[in-house]
Amino acid sequence: MDYVTLGKTGITVNKNGFGALPIQRITKEESARLLRKAYDKGIRFFDTARFYTDSEEKIGCALKDVRENLFIASKTMSTKAEEFWSQLHTSLKELQTDYLDLYQFHNPSFCPKPGDGTGLYEAMSEAKEKGLIRHIGITNHRLSVAREAIESGLYETLQFPFSYLSTEKELELVRLCKEHDMGFIAMKALSGGLITNSAAAYAFLAQFDNVLPIWGVQKEKELDEFLSYIDTPPFLDMDLIAVIDKDRKELGGEFCRGCGYCLPCPKGIDIPTCARMSLLIRRAPLSVYLNEEHQSKMARIKECINCNHCSSHCPYGLNTPSLLSANLTDYETFLAI
Ligand code: SF4
Ligand code: SF4
Known about the structure:
This protein has two domains: about 5-245, TIM Barrel, CATH 3.20.20.100; about 270-335, no CATH class. The protein is about 45% helix and about 15% strand. The protein is built from 15 helices and ten strands. The chain has helices at about 30-40, 55-65, 80-95, 120-130, 145-150, 170-180, 200-205, 220-230, 240-250, 270-275, 275-285, 285-290, 290-300, 310-315, 320-335; strands at about 5, 10-15, 15-20, 45, 70-75, 100-105, 135-140, 155-160, 185, 210-215. Helix 2 links the parallel strand 4 and strand 5. Helix 2 (about 55-65) runs parallel beside helix 3. It binds iron/sulfur cluster (SF4) (2 copies). One iron/sulfur cluster binds near residues 275, 310, 314 and 316. One iron/sulfur cluster (SF4) binds near residues 305 and 324.
């Protein structure tokens, strides 16, 4: 079994965290069965967020009787202290607990610090003093905010997108977290659906002893795959290295990583999904991406006003509006078949 310790939090768990965003999309009964199975088979870290609708409630219902054996991380998108307190109390109520192991600022556009005028960090510290939360973390999609958070010394964990398709910039964040004794929680370890070999994804991340991947689980089949890695962790053998090399070659260069640095789009376009649609429809069952939800996301591309907010914020130098338009043309040809 591979273990990871999240820096100075001391939280030590096996290298399979449960990402509880996708359980919003399934029923209470189904999610209770998945969560319980995850727990029974050894998963101990569950990551949710106030923003994930009923995800916290589902965790609370399914796992309240084993609360002390788990680590629960949640997140707040609050921008003011009053909102912070009301979100924290709601999260505790929904999760049916009186403390969170880790509370994270959820993808803020700046790094909250004491004295910045928002009162957010002060509220976080007070919640810790009162025992309502045990550790303070931050999640982000922006390299600059992530670096600032690490260098500030104010945070115990960073949650950031990280997979074998990541670049040297993300690797540097992992190294910096280690230097600062911070835990690194890897979101999008399957690069939002582009990586289809979970053993390769696992084995790549297993090289980093401060990195905990949280796998977004919605189906039992997916869960079973990750559960099997608790007892039999995949390691980077020649076969998996070949998978990684092939994917890097195939997906290398001018492709959207789904990092979301370019958001928000003033027209509400889901750029991380839409700018990768041509890749996604070729790497996953077609039906998933041709449903109504994705058709309406793709149709929104037509509302682009070419403000270039996205391209000017893309760290990979992509011409995002033209990439979106090419993806839409390609998608429409799939729809017409
Ligand atoms: S250029 Fe288009 S896609 Fe990009 S941010 Fe502006 S409206 Fe959104
Ligand atoms: S367009 Fe660039 S910034 Fe936006 S999600 Fe893709 S890679 Fe990230």
